[in-house]
Fold each of these.
Amino acid sequence: MEYVYQESSLFRNRNPNLNLYYVTTGKWVDDSTINGAVSSLKKNLEDLNMFTDINFIPVDAKELQNLYRSSNNRIVKQINFEKYIPLPRIKSVREAYIGIISAQEYLKLIMDDSGNIIKGLFYDNVRDFQGDQNDVNEEISETIKSKDEHDAFVLYNNGITIVAENCNLSGTVMTIEDYQIVNGCQTSYVLHNNRKFATNNLYIPIKIIRLKSSQIKNHIIKSNNRQTPVTLEQLKAIEFQKQLEEYYKSLPKDMRLYYERRSQQYHGENGIEKIRIVDATLQMRCFASMFLDQAHNAGRYRTKLYENIENKIFQSSHDPIGYYVSCYAFFQLNSLFRKNKLDSKYKPFKYHLLNIFRRQVSGFKQPDLNSNKFIKYCEKMEKVLTNDEYCLEAFINTSTIIDQLINNKYQGKYDRSFAKTVTFTRHIKDKLSPES
């Protein structure tokens, strides 16, 4: 679906600006044909002498997703912000404040009219709420309830960081628009769960930041979240991880997996099987095994794996289909093991089976990960994976390669230690090469 939308304020201003939007559900690649048509259209409009400025704005699938999320998260709240100082001028920041706020005022920012917590405010957080039984959250809760330490909460807590599209301070009243809480998810949920203990003496450290651009927001998220345990995979390419999450959600229910970008975000949700949840670490292992020839590192050496592929994974130029296909293949493979349709002796080699599956189904030569050919390459595997009969046949074929290698190179022993060697990966590649 593609169309051009024209927007102006002709009847409000004598010389208004005009924005031309080219909208596509595909990927904008600076197409020369479209640019030529737009240039011609802009010239015709400029000749009318009706507009001060004419801007061309391409909107592709990724930007559409961002606009959709933004429209869902639009919110305006007011709080009494008495104790603050404005921060000095910072590059890429329009304005920023640091101070303390009473718990009662903060609750106004995170609750809807029914008293429920607004979950969408934590979309940019790298962790979801980790539950009341989490050690850190238990300590936060105990401090809030404690008569002796209640007023010392402000000293113990790391604080809240809010990034807003707009904020306006009039006297002591702060109006905040379209904001995200990028750090402080655990504090927010625990405070909400214990809101009956929120007195005027309970204060929280807070930073409120209005940015010029979204680029610095990811740096703020990374910096604030390095203070508590978060995997490197979760902090890598935050925007692409959001794109992955949306892609997984868009698939038909029978093919659905759930990408857990934020730790524990699907905890306790009814109707979601645990076996269908994919976290960032599993995603890294599956993608690296299938497409980056790293199956020998995927099973155990997570840190070594990350070091080897850090600049090859979660890239903004990648299409999400490759990430999904690798994890869906892993899901289907585990399903065959559970149903005893595939011998359990192959379990130590399951990451190698992903690599063999890719080569056998879509071809030995893999297209560039940034290309349109790669999408077609992945669609071949997706078609096989979504047909139970074809899927079983394909994985039986992959297992025969393991059999041949074990018998010819490893004296018939299905030892998991073999699977963790680069030599085993090379044997597979040599076995499946067109020259073999």
Amino acid sequence: MTARVLLYSKPGCHLCDVARSVVAEVCAELGESFEEVDITAGPDADRLAATYGEEIPVTFVDGRQHDFWRVDPDRLRSALTGR
């Protein structure tokens, strides 16, 4: 099963740390999983850094970009529950 929430982040990013906490809390509350991708590592690092480097953290829900820089827990909860 694929995670419904994807979080693009990079090491040393304080906004990423906050976003990770919000995403983890909301996903745990709703029984959802999330995947985190470090945009500075792996075979797609150059492309991901060029695309999202100025906007991280970036969240996707169900394959569509949801937020960047900050994650609002109520907005994320609504996206995951359809409310």
